Fold this protein.
Amino acid sequence: MNVEQLSKRLGTVASFIPKGSSVADIGSDHAYLPCYLAKQGHITSAIAGEVVEGPYQSAKRQVEATGLQDMIQVRFGNGLNVLKPGEVDCITVAGMGGALISDILEAGKEKLQGVKRLILQPNVGANSVRVWLCRNGWELIDEAILEEDGKIYEVLAADKGNPEAPYKADMERGLLFGPFLLKRKESAFVKKWSLEKENWQRVLSQLDKAQPSTEVDTKKAELLRKIRLVEEVLTNEKNKRA
Ligand code: SAM
């Protein structure tokens, strides 16, 4: 990899890292992100954590190939287990499902002491990350949404603070859509939720053909609620543009 250049997705993650940070990149795989940050002189040091042998070796090779061993330590282990409390002031977890990111943070809570910023990039299920942040005293300070290679990604940045502050307008919508993303309603946001809505409508029409049961009714009601929420959000957007 050319560490001078990152993918748009990882570049967006990098853009939320304060200059001069010490960073832990959990689930680092190829360690592109810490290598890029170190090469740019943007961070003072980094820890690249990996729980799978292949990606761990790949991270080690990348750090050696770029000559960054003095700045980046590659550690083998599950989630935040690779860290000692107070070792870093910024943690990134990117390229996994939102539920897994939340599980990693939950299991490693005691390692978050002294951490000032979390930058989380769930591939799916960003709402479960927002819920975790909210329940654990982390205030979402900004979000980004982007499209790359036909996929849409969300990036969430949070600092210790008042977790409810960004959700004053509407907690339920904020947790689902992202309070900052909801305000901006960029084209990637509109595309993501139009696709989600189509997907839910497909599931709904399949459930219409299923054997009636309380479970099916509950699932249908939940899907309908979410479809209506998306319709409201996207219709407001169309009206605004008209
Ligand atoms: N973060 C990189 C990125 O965004 O390009 C790599 C993403 S890759 C799809 C996910 C990586 O997370 C894999 O290398 C996987 O082994 C690692 N991983 C998954 N669960 C983990 C955990 N509990 N602790 C550490 N690493 C984990």
Notes: Residues 214-241 form the longest helix (28 residues). The pocket of S-adenosylmethionine is lined by residues 10, 26-29, 49-52, 55, 78-79, 94-96, 100, 104 (CB under 6 Å).
